[in-house]
Fold this protein.
Amino acid sequence: MVPSVCLGLPSGAILLYGRAMTRNDETKGAAANPLWGGRFAEGPSEIMERINASVSFDHRLALHDIAGSRAHADMLAAQGIITDADNAAIQDGLARIAQEVAAGEFRFDPALEDVHMNVEARLKDLIGEPAGRLHTGRSRNDQVATDMRLWLRDTQDAVAAGLQDLLVALLDQAQAHAATVMPGFTHLQPAQPVTFGHHLLAYVEMFGRDCGRLADARLRLNESPLGAAALAGTSFPIDRDMTAGALGFDRPTANSMDSVSDRDFCLEFLAAGAIIGVHLSRLAEELVLWTSPAYGLVRLPDGLTTGSSIMPQKRNADAAELVRGKAGRVVGSLVSLLTMLKGLPMTYGKDMQEDKEPVFDAAETLMLTIPATTAMIAGLTVDKDKMRAMTSQGFLTATDLADWLVRAKGLPFREAHHVTGSLVKAAEDAGCDLADLSLETMQAVDPRIDASVYDVLTVEASVSSRTSFGGTAPDRVAQAVKQARARFLT
Ligand code: ARG
């Protein structure tokens, strides 16, 4: 049984590094690799072994590798390629190895290069000769491509589930603050009043699209490369539909060369992940700004902030800063993998072993930064008075005033814009907000203005008037929360 996600080394798992790292050239006469060393008189040099080994990171694939092997062996038996007795021994052995891996007892040996050969060597220890029949009609090339797809499918599902939790936290806060007014910014300059709920719904749209990107990538990922063999397919009468079905894939991949040589499913995950990272980072940046005393709009719970060892007054939003900082790792992983693949001729090259660490690191990063963001959003408290007070700076209702001149007084918008600019200047000179200007002062700028102008100059009136679809009017926001729950929550 493959766990939903297998990111780290199970606790207690043993990696036999010591030998490979300390051996020197005196060991040049070491035995050739038992799994491929038939034509080799001696084993790999110490540096060859070190550059070649991937088990220090690809051990994460062990349970998915075993699941793939079990499906392959069942198919070989069903097709009469191996005997039922051999298959039974293979199934027993692999089930036992899965238990050892899950319990953290499996001993991964770097001298055996990678996870595939570690599992197969252990199978040989356990069941002897039938272990050698498992690799019939397949290669490590289709095996590793299958393992990566299986692992990534589970991991992507876990990342998507994490995003769902984040969406719920954002939607709950948006609902609670559908009518909480705050300044909306462009260029980080005060622009127009909005509600905090509306602001949060902007992120709901972003993370909702991120869920869509993952779901979309999953459709293309979910094809089985198993049976493509080394690159050309196999002469054994295998049944690729059977293994694809057993592993939950929608169908086998259609071209054996493509199957072993592309990693675009990894790129799609990393691209979606990089966008998620960027979205998380923008939200984190806002949390850093909002929680700084200069803004003071939002407070994070104690458990999600840190103090300073020297400045007792400090309350730092370290978690938000780390979410912002770690986005770079995911973007970097995407660039690594794109760069690794760009010059590779068909089909497999050992370069492709370098696909794993970027994918693992990006997944581990997202599995940390997404729940950290969820905790911050769920736990934040809003200082509504501070938000309201901040809307009185920056003449946020200037657009409302210009729109009123158009609507109530029939001015062309360009002229209304000009008149409003003069009124902003007058307010600036008087050191007050637009709503605090006397009617005489306003009429001195334009005699057509009358007292009903004051109805449009409050921030509440401003947000309430923005009832267009997708706008910030509190009723619209409350409705948008409901619609977003239906659109994005699965
Ligand atoms: N560890 C290898 C990888 O991750 C497995 C495939 C090895 N294939 C080969 N032809 N040497 O890519």
